Automatic annotation (TrEMBL):
Keyword Cell membrane appears in the UniProt entry: no
GO biological process terms held by the UniProt record: amino acid metabolic process; carboxylic acid metabolic process
Protein name as annotated: Aromatic-L-amino-acid decarboxylase
Protein family per UniProt: Belongs to the group II decarboxylase family.
InterPro entries (alphabetical): Aromatic_deC, PyrdxlP-dep_de-COase, PyrdxlP-dep_Trfase, PyrdxlP-dep_Trfase_major, PyrdxlP-dep_Trfase_small
Pfam families reported in the protein's UniProt record: Pyridoxal_deC
Transmembrane region(s): none
């Protein structure tokens, strides 16, 4: 494709995206296709000769859109929002055009220095502890952040010739913690799921301390605690201050997983979520969830990155141009290759500014508060957990069967998409506000639809 052709097609692509965003509300949120239906539209083999770009773009509407779950749709209220924005998407395009490889400072000096700077900008915006300043890195996901934290923890622990290792998280700690532990050869049996309090679903620190003590007495090595700020199930906030004291006393690494909720600390009134974070060894949060940055952009900060570097730094004749005074990002991550993800974070932070980001986050929180008030006012439902962020969890008072039927009916209609979770063995419906296009009006319309659908539920009340 010549630069002139690129210019022409590039404009068409940008128009396509703008049209998609503009018309999104008129599409069903979820696809009606059966498994295999998209693959059936594709030839068995790649084409022998090149096809015109116009045909490729036309297949976005024919092949891709009808088989897509539209995460940017105002009716997408499941999981957590994966927000994006114009500045983020355009920066992705620019980064793809540059297509740099940032494994070393010398292979991409501007990318390295922008990443270091915007990691610090975000730390300042969120008022993260001083120990994390200058020590942030952008990864693909929070799953990688947890894995790197455990790798660093093990490297630190190995200095004392320790093992076998045990990792601790709450009952509601994310599934990626299980994966990270397995990758390190820590079996599921050595991942302790600490009980949580009934309503807040926050980790019980006394139980954590007792388990750490018992494991040590049994000859095991408590390696790390992964505490959560904003659990995936209900956005519970673990008590970092009490957990931090235990970790310090016991010499156990503390990683704080704030994948979804951490960015809320950009608003000063939400900073309570990080009380005690100054005792943590590492911390992750995902601007790609709530901060308009688009997948993938996950920040991980280390209070002392030395054990991470010890584990990750490799040398080879072809990796020659290193410098002690510079950041070589291959020391901060598992792969050698590194995309220029910092560009989109830089664009988003500049395009919105502190004020714009706060407005966006506060809108999500206000939407959740409004929604919770409608749920509380409806005698068929009850709130199931606190809702400090953009997520509201609730139950059907008639029981789990009625809740499940309601979810199935709402999602079958395809104009909304909700997900569920379980708490104490009970079924909970989740509604996640804060999405790119979710507004107070769209949420009101969604609640009306859910409420009307609840009128059709036929499952008998639990005995
Ligand atoms: N941790 C928490 C608390 C999450 O909510 C999630 C995803 O929703 C994750 C970790 C996994 O995040 P990622 O997809 O970035 O690996």
């Amino acid at each position: 494709m010549s630069p002139d052709e690129f210019r022409r097609h590039g404009r068409a692509v940008v128009d396509w995206i703008a049209d998609y965003w503009e018309g999104l509300q008129h599409l069903p949120v979820t696809p009606g296709r059966e498994p295999g239906a998209t693959a059936a539209l594709l030839p068995d083999t790649a084409p022998e000769t090149g096809e015109p770009f116009d045909d490729l773009l036309a297949d976005m509407d024919r092949v891709v859109v009808p088989g897509t779950v539209h995460w940017q749709h105002p009716g997408f209220l499941g999981y957590f929002p994966m927000t994006t924005s114009g500045p983020a998407v355009l920066a992705e395009l620019l980064a793809a055009g540059l297509n740099t490889q940032g494994m070393l400072w010398s292979t991409s000096p501007a990318a390295a220095e922008i990443e270091a700077r915007v990691s610090d900008w975000l730390a300042e915006l969120m008022d993260l502890p001083e120990s994390f300043r200058g020590n942030g890195v952008i990864q693909d996901t929070a799953s990688t952040g947890v894995l790197l934290a455990l790798i660093a923890a093990r490297t630190r622990a190995e200095r004392d010739g320790a093992g076998p290792y045990v990792v601790y998280t709450s009952e509601d700690g994310n599934a990626c913690i299980t994966k990270a532990a397995r990758v390190l050869g820590i079996p599921d049996a050595h991942l302790r799921r600490v009980p949580v309090a009934a309503w807040t679903r926050a980790m019980d620190p006394a139980d954590l301390a007792a388990r750490i003590g018992a494991d040590r007495a049994a000859g095991l090595t408590p390696l790390a605690v992964v505490a959560t700020v904003g659990t995936t199930a209900t956005t519970a906030v673990d008590p970092l201050d009490a957990i931090g004291v235990i970790c310090r006393e016991q010499g156990v690494w503390l990683h704080v997983d704030a994948a979804y909720a951490g960015v809320a600390a950009i608003c000063p009134e939400m900073r309570w979520i990080h009380r005690g974070l100054d005792q943590a060894d590492s911390y992750s949060t995902n601007p790609h969830k709530w901060l308009l940055t688009g997948l993938e952009c996950s920040l991980t900060y280390f209070a002392d990155p030395a054990p991470l570097h010890q584990a990750m730094r490799v040398t080879a004749a072809y990796l020659h141009d290193r410098g002690e005074a510079r950041i070589d990002y291959q020391d901060w991550q598992i792969p050698l290759g590194k995309r220029f993800r910092a560009l989109k974070l830089w664009f988003v932070l500049r395009a919105y500014g502190r004020e714009g980001l706060q407005r966006h986050l506060r809108e999500g929180i206000a939407c959740a508060e409004e929604l919770a008030s409608w749920i509380e006012a409806d005698e068929r439902f009850e709130l199931a957990a606190p809702h400090p962020f953009g997520l509201v969890c609730f139950r059907h008072r008639a029981g789990d069967g009625a809740g499940r039927e309601l979810l199935a009916r709402v999602n079958a209609d395809r104009r909304l998409f909700l997900t569920s979770t379980e708490s104490d063995g009970r079924f909970l419906l989740r509604i996640a506000a804060g999405g790119t296009a979710t507004t107070s009006e769209s949420l009101k319309a969604a609640w009306q639809r859910i409420s009307q659908t609840a009128d059709q539920v036929t499952t008998a009340a639990d005995p």
